[in-house]
Amino acid sequence: MRAADERESRYDFLDWLRVIAIFVLFFFHTGMIFVGWGWHVVNSQTIPGLQWPMDIAHRLRMPLLFVIAGAGMWFALQRRTAGMLLKERTIKLLLPFVAGMFIIVPPQIYCERLLRGQWQGGYLEFYATRVLQFSPYPSGDFGWHHLWFILYLYVYVLLLLPAMLWWRRRGKPVSPGTWLCLLGIPLGINEALLKHAYPESHNLVSDWYIFNHYLLLTAYGYFMASMPGIWRWLADFRTWSLGAGLVSFALLISLFNAGVIEHDSIADAVGANIFTWLWMMVFLGYGYRYLSFVNPLLAWAREASYPFYILHQTVIVVIGYYVIQYAWAPWTKYFVILVLSMVACLALYEGCVRRFALLRLLFGMKPEASRLRLGPVAEAQAAGEDVQ
Predict the structure, then answer these.
(1) How many domains does the chain have?
(2) Residue 355 located in a structural domain
(3) Distances from the Cα of 323 to the Cαs of 165, 327, 330, 338, in angstroms?
(4) pLDDT tens per residue, range 121-134
């Protein structure tokens, strides 16, 4: 494959993986209503069959998004100065995050308070008297909920930028090899050392286990994208990484069932993160091999995926709040919430978000006029460079 073709195709497959990962979030966050893990709205009856798939998805969905985001930073710095990158990421990340805290997240908190009997009035009164007190969630009613991903990614840009610039100037490329499989070990050590003291909270200030976990994965994405031939190597190695990923999964399950490994033990932390990283290699390798193309669906989804991410959890929570009150079977409720949420996000995006300049800005989208000036080829390249 020619160098120019390889440069363009890597954007395509990473965009496909990002779109797929965000699509999977609909299934995951709908499932959160039915697994009894104490989410914002919960159904009285659980679906036990969802717990294992949900647990596995939790280990894979967000790590993939952060690895892709790290790779996107490498691509962006090939065409931008550090100042340009900071300005672009501030507009694309920090602005939607702040706007989302005022517009997108409050309906989730409102539904949660209603369901738990902690509020009985209307939404506008709740917003004026509770949200605008700016008391942090969960004790208060002002929070960022699923937008933590955007906040953490912005903080990672600020923290990693000096190291990324140094690595770019270093000019000594690293060759990919089987040693990449070892990158899961630092992830496991981080979890083993910090998870008990700083459990997952997404509150930024005392979330050291998760903060370091995704910081490492973002740095891994940048580091790997800097390697000449990395995507081709991962594609060539994909059968081996798939085999290793399947073996790691089977081994962990067998050891859990045999009582050799206990949940939340050191062995669990290291083994689970080796599993996570091997599957990152699987997704990247198979993605490069089979998703290095553009079609009309990707051209549309590249732009839509970020607004869909911002919208999806609020839509799921609001729809879920009403659906769980019906006397339907849990699986019926699950699929009703899932389908209605997808349709509602599509309607909100197509009917509102993409059609108004202010909403495009608040949802991290490029202005319509700039897209028209770019033209289809340059726009596709820009979209690939701006992988979230």
Answers:
(1) 1
(2) yes
(3) 49, 9, 10, 11
(4) 999 999 999 999 99
